Structure formats: structure tokens, C-alpha cells
Amino acid sequence: MSDDAFKTLMEESGVRQLNKEPRIRPIKRPSRAAIAEARNRAEDADVMPARHGLSTEDPPPANPLKPLHYIAYDADRHIAGLLDELPFPAQLEIDLHGHTVEQAATEVAHVFQLLREKRLTHLRIVHGVGRHSADGRAVLKGLVNRWLKNNPDIVAFSSARRSDGGTGVVNILTRGLMDDRWART
Questions:
Q1: Residue 48 DSSP SS3
Q2: How confident is the model at residue 170 (pLDDT cuts 50, 70, 90)?
Q3: Which region holds residue 138: left if phi is over 0, alpha if psi is between -120 and 50, else beta?
Q4: Is 154 helix (H, G, I), strand (E, B) or coil?
């Protein structure tokens, strides 16, 4: 079918070509007054720099005797079986007993950094169950739970077996098990 025959067919059937010009929207630039106001608000704000980047806000109450368990959404469910290995082959272990929340956050941030640098796959964190805290709450357990869930390099974690520390210890598997190249930057 030639172009002329196609155009004739379209005209006969009532189809017309739209003649729309593309709209180019101008970039919205803030005014000098708006920029100055935003700069003043930023300078007046009370900002405390976080050395570790982890949230130390009060965690939700954690039952000291309830085991922690997490598997990332995109992880293979069979990976949870690796958490039950006896003994758990931890490549790095840290003990947070006696640490304040800030000290624990700094230690865990350092572990996260080592995890990426050394491409670790099996970690263990001993956080305790809060027996020695001022109000008897498992504060570090709740915070460690939050920090691990918010780290994209953590694939799964679970409280250790009772013989390895029980609910006061968490065994962790990292993304290195799924992607040996650690392609993400």
C-alpha cells in the first residue's frame, strides 16, 4: 500500500493527524529570597553529626527471650538453613556487653564497613538480653535488630542456638553468599 493510498484510507475512515507541538517547560529556579531563607534555616538548625549513621532512637520493646529471625525479601528461603549450622562458622564476632548505645552503634557501623571491605559472609553479634541494663530492657537487642534489617547487605539473621548463646546472640548471613562478586557499589 502506497503512502497516498494509506492517507486516503485514513481520511475516509475519519482519522486525522494531530498537529501538537511539544511543550518545553522552563526550569523552576528558586528566587534569591527563597534561597536565602533556606540557607538561614539550615544555619539555625541544631544538627548533631552522627559518626556512625545508625539510628539510636529508642527501639520498640524487644522481648529478651524471643528469638530474632529475618530473611530478606529477595533471598532464597533455603538460605535460612545455613543459620542452623553447628557450629556457626562466624568469620567475625563482636561482643556488645557493657557498651552504651552510642558505643554499640559505632562498633556495628565498623562491622558493616569491614563486611564490605573484606567481603565477609558469616557474622555473629553478641548483644545480650538486657539483664545488666538500668531498667532491665533489652535495648541493644532491639537496636541490633533494627540496624541489621536496614542494612541492604544483610540477607538473613537469626538468634543463635541455646548452646551458642541463645537469644542474646545473633548469627548473620550477608549478600556475599548470593553474589560473590558484590557487584553493588
A1: coil
A2: very high
A3: beta
A4: strand
Reading the block at residue 41, the C-alpha cell is 534555616
- The three cell numbers of residue 152 are 541492604
pTM of the model: 0.66
CA dist., res. 147 & res. 104, Å (int): 11
Q: Which domains does the chain have, with CATH numbers?
A: 69-177 (3.30.1370.110)
Could you give the CA distance from residue 89 to residue 121 in angstroms, rounded to a whole number? 9
| pLDDT score for 58 | 76
Alpha carbon distance 176, 182 (integer Å): 6
The amino acid sitting at 121 is: T
Alpha helices in 72-122 (DSSP H): 101-118
Residue 150 to residues 38, 44, 50, 106, 109, Cα–Cα distance (Å)? 30, 30, 16, 16, 12
Strands 92-95 and 69-71: unpaired
Task: Tell me how far the alpha carbon of residue 168 is from its chain's centroid.
Answer: 22
* Packing angle of the helix pair 139-149, 101-118 (nearest 10 deg): 30
Give the model confidence (pLDDT) of 81-116 as tens digits: 888 777 888 889 999 888 888 888 899 999 998 888
Is pLDDT at 46 greater than 60 in this prediction? no
